């Protein structure tokens, strides 16, 4: 991938408590918090968690609805989460994530099979929700 190719930079999730959301995504999902200390200190407007070296999930407080003025009607979408965000992991990390979620009592879907995605068909997938109701899919590919 080159610096000039298109890729996903970030997804903004609406959350009620950004600190609690960051801790869930760090402790349970296994994502690295970004700017959490700065958010707690009031230096930045929201924290994030890192999915990989190129992609973040921004954890925007629902109170930001008043700041959604970049396009007409943008504020109307505040609080309406996307259908789901899919995280692709190696098979061992997929199993470890499922075990951590179970350990923390997070409700999980059954394992699905042969689901199509960006890299073809994934042999196993499952779904879960974060504490704010955002839906996540976890999957792994054979390679």
UniProtKB/TrEMBL annotation:
**Cited Pfam families:** Glyoxalase
Entry superkingdom: Bacteria
Q: Which SUPFAM superfamilies match?
A: Glyoxalase/Bleomycin resistance protein/Dihydroxybiphenyl dioxygenase
Domain VOC: start-end pairs:
7-141
Q: What is the name listed in the Swiss-Prot or TrEMBL entry for this protein?
A: VOC family protein
Which organism does this record belong to? Streptomyces camelliae
PROSITE patterns named in the record: VOC
Q: Which Gene3D superfamilies match?
A: 2,3-Dihydroxybiphenyl 1,2-Dioxygenase, domain 1
